[in-house]
Design brief:
transcription regulation; DNA binding; Arc Repressor Mutant, subunit A; alpha/beta; about 50% helix
């Protein structure tokens, strides 16, 4: 299966570089480009990409607003990876809270971009635990502070959520807990449902903002 990608960045050079990287991979294909977030809804509707690589800072409609629009208006929005210059950019955290599936730095290696696209399509999270923790701390806990008690997570689901926040994949969590990968997938699906989270990234953001996972 070929994974279709939409590139969104206001710098021509950045888009050209990403296109060269992704189009060189046999299972990836760049379907289109946009220089501003305002172009994204129409292109997504027409091209139906699996993944959008989204610049977070753009002059007219930024990546946060574009991400929020896709997530709130589409029944099955594409996976969204925010691409940023600085990992401590508050805009990144706002984009993650808006529904982005992860982020990458523009200085990432070519293989990291290709790997990131494959990771989010496979349903895994693209999180960097220390960076997310710092961003959550910088945000001052702007989200819900109700804890996760009302969600009714089981002890096992809570364990899985903590390991997800540590950046572990399903395979790694299975090894850590001595369980089968399919069992972990079931736990992940159950906890996402209880939290009302779109994906693993949103579940981790909720865990930090609720105080379930300490920011210290």
């Amino acid at each position: 299966m070929t994974i279709g990608v939409l590139l969104v960045d206001d710098e021509d050079l950045v888009r050209a570089g990403l296109r060269a990287i992704l189009d060189s991979e046999p299972d990836l294909a760049v379907l289109g480009e946009a220089a501003d977030g305002a172009e994204v809804p129409g292109l997504v509707a027409r091209l139906r990409p699996d993944v959008v690589l989204m610049d977070v800072r753009m002059p007219s409609v930024d990546g946060i607003r574009a991400t929020a629009h896709l997530v709130s208006t589409m029944e099955r929005p594409p996976k969204i990876i925010v691409v940023t210059t600085f990992e401590n950019d508050d805009y990144v955290y706002d984009a993650l809270r808006a529904g982005a599936d992860g982020f990458l730095l523009k200085r990432a290696r070519p293989e990291e971009f290709a790997g990131a696209v494959r990771t989010v399509v496979a349903g895994e999270s693209l999180l960097f635990p220390s960076a997310i923790r710092k961003l959550a701390a910088r945000s001052g806990g702007r989200g819900r502070r109700d804890g996760l008690a009302a969600a009714g997570l089981t002890e096992r689901e809570s364990e899985v959520l903590r390991l997800m926040a540590a950046g572990l994949s399903n395979v790694e969590i299975a090894g850590e807990l001595f369980l089968g990968v399919q069992t972990i997938k079931t736990h992940v699906g159950n906890l996402l449902g209880k939290l009302g989270a779109r994906d693993r990234t949103q579940a981790v953001i909720r865990a930090y903002e609720s105080g379930f996972i300490p920011l210290g």
